[in-house]
Protein 1
Amino acid sequence: MAIEEVSKYSWIFTICSSVLFIVIGWAVVYWNAKKLATRNETKSLLDKAISQLESLTVLATEYWLGGRKERLDDDHYQLLVMAQISRLGLTLNILNARGLGISFDLLAHLTTLTTLDCEKANTMEKSLCHTRGHELNNVSMELTNHFINAFQNKYAPN
């Protein structure tokens, strides 16, 4: 086969290679867009979890640091706390399904701190209530840090 015969069909090679490069280019663009969308959706869920945690922390801190007259009824408080913890747990389950690997140990500890002996809060010494409020804030900050670290480990900045 002479070079002249091959050159007659070079346009086929040009068209096929162009189409191939276009398809590869679109596949890369699609893959990156999908990756970014998943990251953004996960970040949005993480922000929601942090917001739920903050709401729970404010409720619990106000309960433990508030005076006797300002405190909610302990049954009402427990109901509100458990509802918020359940909602937060559902959000964390979704985040874990997305591969974040968030541990529930700190959430269990926070649950204990928020509800254990809450019915005795009106008869406890003020210093014990303040200590409980301080412990709540510490565990909440640890949880927030854990959430953010789990996200950073899954979606490391480039």
Protein 2
Amino acid sequence: MGTTQTETTHLEEWKQLKRNLSGSAVLSESMMELFEVEAKRRIEDKGEYPNSLHLDHWDFYLSDVSSSLDRCLAYRREARDLEIAAVKAAVDYTHFVASSALSRSLELASLGGDSAKARLDAIDQALGSLPEIEFSAIFRSYLTIERSSLVTTINNLSDRATLIKKRWDELTDVAESYHKRHTTSGNAHNFAQRYERVLDIYADELFDVVNKIPHVRRGICLIFGDVPACPDFNQADGYLDRVVTWLRDVIRYTNGKTELETKFDIVIPLVQPWRGKDEKSFVDADKFYDIFHSDEHVKQLSFEFKDVFYGLERVRVSGIGISFGSEPWGSKDGSVGWRDTVTGYRLRVTIKTPEQTDEVGNKYSRPPVIFGNVAIHGAEAPVAWYDGANCANLRPNGHWTISVEDLAVWLNGKRASVKSGFFSSKVLDIKLHLRVTALPADKNGSFFSK
């Protein structure tokens, strides 16, 4: 919504009023400009955003931006209240300084002291010039009485004038003392200083918003389709309100897109035949054996992730887990069960996830996912799990690499290797656990086979 001519006039009048009051020291230089315009200048002075941002973290940023905008609205409201309070204080002080001397003079003049003194002077002159006759004696007596009354009146007026001056001196002292509060650092009445602090915090908060919303939009466009462009930061006046409106529309849009999506966990074995009616595996059992019995200190498995989901759209990962498969075993005398034995065996694994494609077709890679406590699949052992930023909104199709360290952790202090000794035949498979979000198509039957 554009600014009307009347609104523009009012804004200019408000700015002119603040400029006229700039000499009062109650208003800061920043208050001379519109709040959002001054905030824009401070944001631009910050330069490049210090943190790396990524489109796959759009949902994290969406939550961050929503919270930031709530705070920005509160900061702006506080800043406007401080600006109004500062202008009122400046107007009141300027008005007092301009009117106090005049009001003092008017009050003193209204006492009529000069008129009484003039009448007293006239009586004194008359008394000095009257002849000594009987009629004059009577008139002299009247003038003497009148003179005595005027002297009393003049003395009373002098006392009142002293009280008036004292009252105005006290009012001036109070006004000056209160004015100093507006300019004393750290004082709650120093509206300009508080305004500057709020302006700095607001600019810092909005700095995050300005830099995050393009990545919010990129991530949403990649998964759900196009959304309106972000508001133009160069149009500072009204920017915050436009961003709030834009974000509300985006949240409403994404909520509508995700309300029919489903989330589920799936365990994907690499060696075990598992996929479709052809019972395909990701890694051949002989190849797996050769890799795990090689002399390499890191056993590296690579495979193409495909033909896992059917009839699912917008498939993306929000969590990754890992475990290994093995045959149940125990001691010969049966004193130690296989569950107790194998749950003490832990591997270290690094997963390189598939290369991703952004909304304009550029390729990029995600950081690896690292596990240092990988246990056997099942047997009451916990699944090593990760649901952090490195796998957020990961599209799973593509080339995966899973690297397993040769040396493992065992119950005692003896050396434990996956290629030799007791454990050489115990690691038979790697199980990849995924937490998936997707939109099911309208179809009958399984979503895991054609």
